[in-house]
Amino acid sequence: MTKNNGAITVLTISLGCPKNRVDTERLIGSLGTDMRPVEEVAAADLVLINTCGFIEPAVEESVSTILETVQDMEELSGDRPVLAVAGCLVSRYGGDLKDEMPEVDLWLSTDELEKWPDMVEKTLGRKADSSLPRNLSTGPGYAYLKVSEGCSHDCRFCTIPSIRGAHKSRPVDFLAEEAAKLVGEGVPELIIVGQDSTHYGSDLGLKHGLQQLLERLLPLPGLEWLRVMYLYPAGLTETLLSFLRDAGKPFLPYFDIPLQHAHPEVLSAMGRPFARDPNKVIDRVRKYFPEAALRTTFIVGYPGETDEHFQHLMDFVERTRFHHLGVFPYWPEDGTPAASMNNQVPDEVKTERRDALMELQASISGEIMAGYVGEKLPVLVEKPSPEWPGLFTGRTWFQAPEVDGITYVSAEPGVELVPGAIVEAEIEQAKTYDLVGLV
After folding, report:
1. In a 10 Å sphere around its CB, with 0-12 CB exposed, 13-18 middle and 19+ buried, how is residue 352 labelled?
2. Which domain CATH number covers 415?
């Protein structure tokens, strides 16, 4: 029996990356239009936890979330909901988890993504339909478009290929149809995600797969912004960049390029699939997009990383001036070649290096943000801010959701701000990572 007059009530907890979020949205959408989201275990017929298992901190967060949810269920006086655990943690440790957590009713591995609706249907005794639209969880402003599964690169520190399998692109027609539905529902920004977006279509026999996909997406009526994440350096060719420059709007000149390091010896030790000099790809992007906003991620403390290697990275960051930067201490993950390498770096050194690099980036980001004061920028309004009435949070074109800073906007009397709308705001104040503007 359901807890809401026949409608199924669902509590979802989606951990990890946006690709996980899309998987969650698709599964919840398959439950039909009478599905009702809830925020408490006691009100749920189904609790879905979509986990991350990429690195040790993510594994710990996922396990902790499952155990806390089990405890909440044990405290219920009435019927307990069905507990489903999905995602990368299941793919990585499924057998062990089933023995250690018998309270979980359903385990959903990423190698069975297409079967998830049927598996949930069987457990709930309720019909699911994988052809139904996604149940968006990102608000009215944006939606992710996941273009591929898995990864075929052999980076020595990474668990993704063993968890998600080899790179597998979704068909162009499928993605174009999904994108058209999302934009048709009023979503102004689409964000392309995949483990390596530049690799899209290679397994489908497409020579310029990402370009062919973008040719289908860019003309969609109502699409205001198109952002592409996870652009591997080797895939940012002269051909692709020339196409993007000529395409113009709604493509945003925002380049998320996961470099991971700057020193050629460290990059070689990592087994990164591109030329060893990251300056080349930065120069190539800025040749076609002088105004580009650059985002990247780095790993510090990789086995064998010396003080000289790290200083080389610091100098590269200072010279390049990224808009946004993420830094992660290296984690020796079981089953990866890097975990058994010699010259492992002490944890305290990793932490020191991460803090030093983030301190440098904070200074750079603050200077870049200050440069926008007095300018008028487009801002996608997202939601009211709890700080005070009339203030909204949003993002300008060089701010991706969840990973970058935000732009606070308020309006002159008589002007209404609506979530999902793109407005022009004059930037009045800059913080280290955020902006404040007036419409």
Report:
1. middle
2. 2.40.50.140
Q: Encode pLDDT of 185-198 as tens digits.
A: 999 999 999 999 99
- Residue 10: CB atoms within 10 A of its CB come to 24
> Has this prediction a pTM greater than 0.85?
yes
* Inside any domain, residue 1: no
Domain closes at, from 370, 401, 428:
370
For residue 53, the one-letter residue type is: G
Q: Could you read off the pLDDT of 307-335 as tens digits, one per residue?
A: 999 999 999 999 999 999 999 999 999 98
Range(s) of the domain holding residue 233 = 142-370
Edge-to-edge strand ranges of the sheet holding 225-228: 142-146, 189-193, 225-228
CA distance 369 to 431: 7
- In whole angstroms, give the CA distance from residue 181 to residue 248: 22
Q: What is the pLDDT of residues 73-131, one digit of tens each?
A: 999 988 899 999 999 999 999 878 888 999 999 999 999 999 999 999 999 888 888 88
Q: Are residues 306 and 391 in the same domain?
A: no
Residue recorded with tokens 């060893």 = 276
Residue 154: how many other CB atoms lie within 10 Å: 11
- In a domain, residue 335? The reply is yes
Q: Which amino acid is at 354?
A: R
